[in-house]
Each structure stands twice: as structure tokens, then as C-alpha cells.
Amino acid sequence: MSLKDYTNLTLHTDDYEINMMQTYFSKKMENRRAVFEVFFRTMPFENGYAVFAGLEHVIDYINNLHFTDDDIKYLAEHGEYTPEFLDFLSHFKFKGTIRSAQEGDLVFNNEPIMQVEGSLAECQLVETAILNIVNYQTLIATKASRIRQAAGDDQLMEFGTRRAQETAAALWGTRAAFIGGFNSTSNVLAGKSFGIPVSGTHAHSLVETFGHDYDAFMAYAQTHHDCVFLVDTYDTIKSGVPNAIKVAKQMGDQIHFAGVRIDSGDMAYLSKRIREMLDDAGFTDTKIIASNDLDENTITSLKMQDAKIDVWGVGTKLITAFDQPALGAVYKMVSVEQSDGQMRDTIKISNNAAKVSTPGKKQVWRINKQSDGKSEGDYIALSDEDPRHQDSLYMFHPQFTYINKTLTDFEATPLLRTIIENGKLVYKMPSLVEIQAHANQALASLWPEYKRQMNPQDYPVDLSKKCWDNKMNLIESVHNYVQHLNY
Ligand SMILES: Nc1ncnc2c1ncn2[C@@H]1O[C@H](COP(=O)(O)OP(=O)(O)OP(=O)(O)O)[C@@H](O)[C@H]1O
Ligand SMILES: O=P(O)(O)OC[C@H]1O[C@H](OP(=O)(O)OP(=O)(O)O)[C@H](O)[C@@H]1O
Ligand SMILES: O=C(O)c1cccnc1
């Protein structure tokens, strides 16, 4: 089950989208064809790759897209819309085509990660929600993947709900965290909705209720088989751990003494002492779980200190993407139908070279070496090109064109898959476990240079010659047009 029965998100769009729709409608342009593409300009967290997430929610959103009578009434009362336009909206259905990266795919800056092709009206309407969903979920999946890289094979528990930016962010965020490599969530609704394994320990309030570690742990042990005791409420070494061991010994086989959790103090020192105490008492399989404002940096540091921590509980810094709260993905028009029925590629010029959009409907080809399967880079081509038909592939840096290479031993795989075609879902959503496995496979084909946490190499994202020429020609024609203006 998914969170399908949440509020209809059709009005979850910016006012200006509906205002533009009204203009297109009044000018009889609402059915002109258009192509828009989603991309981000800089890598989140200065990471070498991003993990794409959000497609399932985008599909739910598109499937639910319709203006209810109530929505129309609201627009009639609050906007400058004509009755004819409101009538058009009341019959609106999404009939466009969406091509997208799959969840768990690795994606990079300045390449299309989703493409919407359809009528001008429908393409414009869906911009806001698509960006809202993809921006957040891709950011969290990427943060989770960074934390996974730091944690190695250790268990990662997602604890973020209480700190998330509201409920939807907690739920979709924990799903994105799972895609990025987390093992479980503390959020029960996320477990029910998405099938994520749910796990949890107990809070300090349990110990405070009983007033003593022993009484609290014993009460918990008498009411649960699997027990993780939180040992830092009063004094970890003098009271928490000794009382946890005492209860575990007294309860014997009646419980599974799965672990102890620490949530404060010097966790390198404490975990080493706790490990000795547990081992001395014969509980060599009992795990040590740590939480307290953890992220990939604290986990890396604790591992360097040889902390004896087996399981990491991570909340705030993951679910809020603490060190970079926005991915900054944008949705740009790349082609639009003219009055003569011809498509014209479009460009947004900027003084900042990196901000000049790449015109034309495109496909991203992931180029891997056939011999070792490793990624050589991404090759952005116009949609009528297919590098699979070429014996060799010339790849060059789109700004510093002297950086180039010619590949013969290569395999090209399209990144953008058709998800919705003319309004119909044509894509079978993989399970969440399959998506997580897909992300792991994708990471395995990436060289370690792109995966390191600090100062990773820039992954090559190149344009085909045809795509590059198309961009240069359009820049030239816009310059000519601006130069000949007389104001
Ligand atoms: N050995 C360590 N190396 C690196 N970071 C650590 C280590 N031990 C704890 N931390 C991290 O340091 C941060 C602050 O911990 P600190 O001990 O100052 O506060 P605290 O234990 O949370 O205090 P409080 O008792 O108020 O909860 C946390 O993010 C924690 O994960
Ligand atoms: O530190 P985070 O990465 O955000 O992980 C979530 C935090 O939430 C809990 O603390 P909280 O103080 O809310 O409740 P408690 O009384 O159970 O400690 C838990 O003990 C973690 O410290
Ligand atoms: O289960 C836990 O230990 C837990 C859950 C949420 C937040 N902090 C801790």
C-alpha cells in the first residue's frame, strides 16, 4: 500500500502556473506541445553522486490529478479566471508523457532527471509538485547514502520523524532514507504504508517513570521479548549497563537481550567500556546502539576512534538534510510547438555560463565500459540520437572542450525511462527492497573516486556534438536577436 488516499494535490501548485494556463487557454494555445526537463545545478552535500528518489509519489500525484468541484469553486472565488477556463479545468486530465530516472538511479548535476512532454497547460500545472517531491526525496536519499557509506555494513535505524519538517516529509523522507541504504524506520505509519521494517527501543521517559534503571528495564523485559535498554538516563557505566546486565541475567531465556542504546556522552569511550562489560558478562552478541545528532561525519569520526558501536540511530541531520536543506532542482522548458505546428527548441540565457539551459528534448545515456562495467560518464544527446548504434563515442567536456576522450569499448544505457505515456502508467514500480538493491548495484559500478565523502572527482556529464551545436546555435541566435533590438 502507498499513501494514495492523502489529500488531492491538484491545487498544490504555484498560483503563477494556473495564471499561465489561463493565458494559454484564452490564446487557444493550451494544447500546444511542450517539453520540460528537471535538473539540478550543483551536487548536494558536495557529494560525487546523488540518489534519485520521488518517482512513486510523482506517479501517485499524477494519477490523482483532477480539479474537484470544490477546487473549481475556490478558484472561481479567489482568482481572475474566466468561466470557460474554469470549465476547462473541471474536465482536466493529465494526458502527457513522463520520462524519468528510476528511483535508486545515481544522477548528476546538469542532466535531465525527469522530462514532461505534453500540452502546455498540463506541463505547466505539474511543475511545482514535481519539483517539491523530487527535490526533497532525492536530497534525503543522497544524505542517507552518504551516511551508509560512512557506516559500512552496520545497521542504520532512521529516527527522524519528530524532527522532520512536518508529517509528509517524515514519511516520504524515511522512504527516501531506505532507498539510500537505511535498514529500518521508527515510524510505524511508514512501515505500514511502504513496507519498511520498523524498529525501536525506548525513551528516557520510561526510566524516569520508574525512577530507577533496574525497575524500568525489568518492567520492559516482562512485557517484551526483544529488549534494547537505554542506559544513559542517570549514569551509563555505574547504573545503566550494570542494571541492563542484571535484568538480562535474571530474565534468562525469557528475553532476547538484543542491545543497549547510548544517547549522550563520549560515545567512543562509553562504547568501548560497555563492550567490555557486556562481553565479561557473557553477552557477546548484545549490540551497542548509538544515537544523538549523528551524521556521516560523527559516524566516520567514531569509527576512526575504534568505537564499539554496532547500530546507528540517525534522526535530525538526515531527515532535515541539515547541512544542505535544498537540492535546488529546476524545471525548464526545452522545446515548444509554434503556430505552424513545428517544435522549436528553447533556451534560457544567463550571464552565468553554468545557468544557461541546454535546449532540446534530450536523453541521458549512461556510458559504462563493457570490459569492467564501470561508469565512464553520462552523455546527453538529443532524443533522435542513439549512441548504441555507434562504434565509437566522442565525449568532451561541455565548457572545457579540450578535455575529451573517444571510447570504443562502451555500453550506453538510457537513464530516462517512459513512466507515463499519453496519461497512462506504463511503468511497473519496483518494490522498495528492489529499489534499494538497484541503488547498491549502481554504486558498485561507480569508481571510488566519485564516492569519497570529501572532494570527490567530478563525474563527467557531457553533451553530444549535435546537442552542443544546437545549444551554441541558439545562444548565437538569441544574441543576434538582442543586438538588433532598438530601444
Ligand atoms: N567520541 C566522539 N567523537 C565524536 N563525536 C562524538 C563523540 N561522542 C559524542 N559525539 C557527538 O558529539 C555531539 C555532542 O555530544 P555531547 O557529549 O556534547 O552532548 P550530549 O552528550 O548530547 O549531552 P547531553 O547530556 O546534554 O545530551 C553529538 O553529536 C554526539 O553524537
Ligand atoms: O539525535 P537525532 O539524530 O535527532 O535522533 C533522534 C533523537 O530522538 C531521541 O531523543 P529525544 O530527546 O527526542 O527523546 P528521548 O527522551 O527519548 O531521548 C533519541 O534519543 C535521539 O537522540
Ligand atoms: O526507538 C528509538 O530508540 C528512537 C525512536 C525515535 C527517536 N529516537 C529514538
UniProtKB/TrEMBL annotation:
One of its GO terms (biological process) is NAD+ biosynthetic process via the salvage pathway. Transiently phosphorylated on a His residue during the reaction cycle. Phosphorylation strongly increases the affinity for substrates and increases the rate of nicotinate D-ribonucleotide production. Dephosphorylation regenerates the low-affinity form of the enzyme, leading to product release. Signal peptide: none annotated. Keywords: Glycosyltransferase, Ligase, Phosphoprotein, Pyridine nucleotide biosynthesis, Transferase. GO terms for cellular component: cytosol. Residues 155-337 form the Nicotinate/nicotinamide phosphoribosyltransferase domain. It is an enzyme of class 6 (ligase). It holds the Pfam family NAPRTase. This is Nicotinate phosphoribosyltransferase. Residues 11-135 form the Nicotinate phosphoribosyltransferase N-terminal domain. CDD domains: NAPRTase_A. GO terms for molecular function: nicotinamide phosphoribosyltransferase activity; nicotinate phosphoribosyltransferase activity. Gene3D superfamilies: Aldolase class I, nicotinate phosphoribosyltransferase. It catalyses: 5-phospho-alpha-D-ribose 1-diphosphate + nicotinate + ATP + H2O = nicotinate beta-D-ribonucleotide + ADP + phosphate + diphosphate. It comes from the Bacteria. Its EC number is 6.3.4.21. InterPro entries: Aldolase_TIM, N/Namide_PRibTrfase, NAPRTase_C, NAPRTase_N, Nic_PRibTrfase-Fam, Nic_PRibTrfase_pncB, Nicotinate_pribotase-like_C.
